[in-house]
Amino acid sequence: MSTRRLGIGIIGTGNISSAYLKAILGRDGLPGFPVLDVRGLADMRHETAEARAAEFGLSAMSLDDMLADPGIALIVNLTIPRAHVEVGLRCLAAGKHVYSEKPLGINFAEGKRLLDAAKAAGLRIGSAPDTFLGGAHQQARAVVDSGVLGQLVGGTAFMQCPGHESWHPDPAFYYDIGGGPMLDMGPYYITNLVNLLGPVAKVSAMSSRLRSERTITSAPKNGQTMPVKVDTHVTGSLGFASGAIVQIAMSFDVAAHKHVPLELYGTEQTLIVPDPNFFGGEVEMRKRGRDEQWVQVTVEAPYADGNYRSLGVADMALGILEDRPHRANGDLALHVLEVMEAFEHAARGGRTIDITTPVERPAPLATSLVNGLL
Length: 374
Ligand SMILES: NC(=O)c1ccc[n+]([C@@H]2O[C@H](COP(=O)([O-])OP(=O)(O)OC[C@H]3O[C@@H](n4cnc5c(N)ncnc54)[C@H](O)[C@@H]3O)[C@@H](O)[C@H]2O)c1
Description:
Blueprint: E1 6-11, H1 17-25, E2 36-42, H2 46-56, H3 63-68, E3 74-77, H4 84-93, E4 97-100, H5 108-121, E5 125-127, H6 135-146, E6 152-160, H7 180-197, E7 200-208, E8 213-215, E9 225-227, E10 233-240, E11 245-251, E12 262-266, E13 269-273, E14 283-287, E15 295-297, H8 311-322, H9 330-349, E16 353-354
Parallel strand pairs: 1-2, 1-3, 3-4, 4-5, 6-11
Antiparallel strand pairs: 6-12, 7-10, 7-16, 8-9, 10-11, 12-13, 13-14, 14-15
């Protein structure tokens, strides 16, 4: 167990910052990540940083003060997608490692610019999602790696909902450039699939945008309309380098459905992987054969029983302190971003797109990283 700590700052203190802070500080029954020493919170709307800081007993600071603080080595960027790269580049220029919320950028070119800048500066990039490090997903990874599924043929990935305007207080970014169901939710599904199956080699797709405007039904902007600048129903196939083929549908236009989030098909068994937006959930398997039954896989891996958002940041901080690679890393996020953007190119051009960025499956989460010991 490491007793060392890394000074971090958080930029962007909106909706999701609360989940990060609860997981880092150990609220709501979570064990906390003591390796992360939160030195301050910043937001372009300073009053939201002050409110969040007061809620968690932390300090609010200006962006400039955070960037100039020598005690802060890593900045967690929880701003909206359009600001991820701009803010990330500023942090790198100030000599800070950056962990960004997803997507890494709103297009491949800017994501690559961020990674190139980090490599040139000898700094690290990390990126959400880190849910693939959750216990249920690490258990699914162990099943895949054991070989019991047989040859991996393919699978399905479904995230279909009516959109986020019924609950998010400020949902316009979900329909702006950089939003849409693929860039918003695709990172969870595609990162998880890359963790299970390895790199994607090609993508084919069709997509639609049946409404040009949508109405917010959540407080406080109830009744206001938002322009829709991205496709909101995206379907297609992912061809993995291994030969496996996964059909995918990501939609903000579907009222209800009964598909499970992720299924993986092997020649010997099928594996049901729980919702990749969460750390836990039920992992199930069934062997081929008419008399076989679905069997629940016991989840022994840690981090399955709560919202551990920031687990990837803790792993990155430990990676920096211990001089080893971190798992939710920039190369993985850039590969996923290239794949997500390929859906747009494939749908527009009516052709299959080859994926160019190399990626390695992140190492499985070491069993030594037991709850609370990070
Ligand atoms: N809300 C969720 O449930 C959720 C879940 C997982 C991931 N995310 C991701 O987290 C990110 C943030 O989402 P959110 O829901 O917290 O959004 P939000 O709109 O609630 O909060 C974003 C915050 O970033 C600040 N901000 C924007 N641009 C900035 C800039 N240039 N400099 C400094 N501050 C800036 C805003 O003032 C705001 O306080 C997004 O990338 C989103 O995809 C959100």
